[in-house]
Amino acid sequence: MSGPAASEERQPELPRFLSKVEAVAMEKELIEDYRFGRQQLAEMCGYACAVAVTKVFPVAALSRKQRTVLVVCGPEQNGAIGLVCARHLRVFEYEPTIFYPKRSPDSLSKDFTTQCEKMDIPFLSYLPTEVQLINDAYSLVIDAILGPGAEPGEAKEPCTSILATLKLVKIPIVSLDIPSGWDVEMGNEDGISPEVLVSLAAPKKCAGRFSGKYHFVAGRFVPDDVQKKFHLNLPGYPGTECVVAL
Amino acid sequence: MSGPAASEERQPELPRFLSKVEAVAMEKELIEDYRFGRQQLAEMCGYACAVAVTKVFPVAALSRKQRTVLVVCGPEQNGAIGLVCARHLRVFEYEPTIFYPKRSPDSLSKDFTTQCEKMDIPFLSYLPTEVQLINDAYSLVIDAILGPGAEPGEAKEPCTSILATLKLVKIPIVSLDIPSGWDVEMGNEDGISPEVLVSLAAPKKCAGRFSGKYHFVAGRFVPDDVQKKFHLNLPGYPGTECVVAL
Known about the structure:
- 2 copies of one chain form a homodimer.
- By secondary structure, chain A is of the alpha/beta class.
- Chain A has one domain (39-245): Rossmann fold (3-Layer(aba) Sandwich).
- Chain A is 36% helix and 14% strand.
- In chain A, strands 3-2-1-4-5-6-7-8 form an 8-stranded mixed sheet, sandwiched between helices.
- At the A-B interface, helix 3 and helix 5 of A face helix 3 and helix 5 of B.
- Chains A, B: Pfam families: YjeF_N.
């Protein structure tokens, strides 16, 4: 009778990718039960995304011109995290430029925007449709457009046009949480193909279809009990690192 | 006419420690002009304090029993940062215990308290007056009791009793921002003598009287323009580090 349990114990469990329902339940638990604040979560996640960028594109290896990063922020929570990420990239001596076409009226996003503006991070008034201009001007794109809460079928302008442009760029894309425009479970075979994915809190099911080179999880802040409850089985975060590579 | 300027340029300027008026002005600028949120600032500072602890007392060098840390939190902002620090110490695999005798009614502090409670960090109901019990039970004390906003002459119970006890402990004390009970400019020669000081945002004048072994500044989030305006002249933060040793 102990057969199955014993065999389960023998092999180390693989990291688990959350369904949409599980991802929503986990966020609810963090916010409602643990009382994590939205500002606090966005700050931790945006910081961790910037740290993940430094792992793949270390600033010391880049010339001044190669440090240019285009951070594309959507109107919701994913965009707010993108703004925090841009600020930390600036602190880490990258040269971020933000494209944030549809600004959230939320005070959280407004405050993050002010922080970036006051730190002299440039904001683009439009995204060039000529993809070569983007390839030439920037070394990478941070995709903070749509998160797991967005329904891909319902993506509206300006997001659809931006995603059409990003599908054509040749410079690497770093996607925050999920690649924008992907279904949180099914992915999107016609969508963008990021080189780097930074899962926030925990990987979502669509990460199984990610074929880029680097997949990080930024979820060290998730309490042990919550990680266990959702059977995340993530590798340990080394030292004081806020991200871990899968 | 260019004499003084030229000679100023020749010698690298030393880090500057802020007066009380300057520290208040800088915090006002961060909050009112840059729109940094109090939750965001507390999260960044508490995280950086926990990272500073790992620099002096690396967890890998400690046995399970040596990882015990007593985090003493006061009723105001310094205590809120202590709660965040305790949470990150837990994540970094220390064994924090919190003493938080006068709880703030502020929602910020309440939420940080809930995060710690739900992560099973124990809260002490009283601090042993027998100092040997503290020396035996813990490896270090985090002093998050009073910050630069407190008037040392006006310190009330339970803070005065706690500080009298901490003056006698033999285990190292890590003070957040300023040693509790010190005047932000003049220090306090009869006060506690921390081994580690973690200045938050920028060092305050009393840090000139600090005679402990390790002084860190946790202020990488302070925008360049603000650092320049207050002539902080801090050494560069290495890599993605959020603290730098002075």
